[in-house]
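DM between two lab members

TW: hey, do you still have the Cysteine biosynthesis protein entry open?
JB: yeah, one sec
JB: this one, 229 aa:
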Amino acid sequence: MSLPRALALALAQLGDPAILRVLGKTTAITLAIFLLGGVALYVGFETAIDSATGMETGGLGALAAAAGTLVAGWFLFRVVALFVMQFHADEVVRAVEARHYPQSANAARQLGFGEEMGHALRSLGRTLLANVLALPVAGLLLATGLGAAAVFVAVNALLVGRELQDAVWLRYRDQAGEGAPLGTGTRFLLGLVVVGVLAIPFLNLLAPILGAASATHLVHRAREKDMHA
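TW: and the structure you got?
JB:
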């Protein structure tokens, strides 16, 4: 299956009640994380400013916290949204499988919370490490304008593509003992689309779900092709 076809099928299923429930949960949790982060920044800035000036300056603390939350949201939204999605991707995958791949769905195994948590933490660690390692390269290309941004987009596209593939594949891998079903190019293009959507305000809330649903189609069609080869 081509990536455009997988994306089209994923878009067509966004109105599925099961998908809408996941969207509601992941949106609420993601926004709550940033809200709590904003409150923590406010308390921290207030304490620091009051200690430094010896007077209450609630306005400055609130302004600094708001600015800090916006900056954190801009840089960290993708990481937080995808981390949250790790715990609900299975619901998206099952919704897509129930509609399009019911026979395969019966063979899938249920991931336990411990396994999901381990996968999510490893994913978070890979994301942070890869972005830190990309910093020197991006710094060298900073003068080019778009070069630095391109480095981070490429790195994160590869990471996101892998995580979305694994969200589907892990439910079958131990049974089949097979290799990764999607090639590097397919994973990269899928990740690139999702990273692009994550950069668009409001639409970025849909990006992880759209990616998980598209990955489900791609992985299942790739596995079917391998089985019939």
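TW: got it. Residues 76 and 123 are 14 Å apart (CA to CA). The chain has a mean pLDDT of 81.
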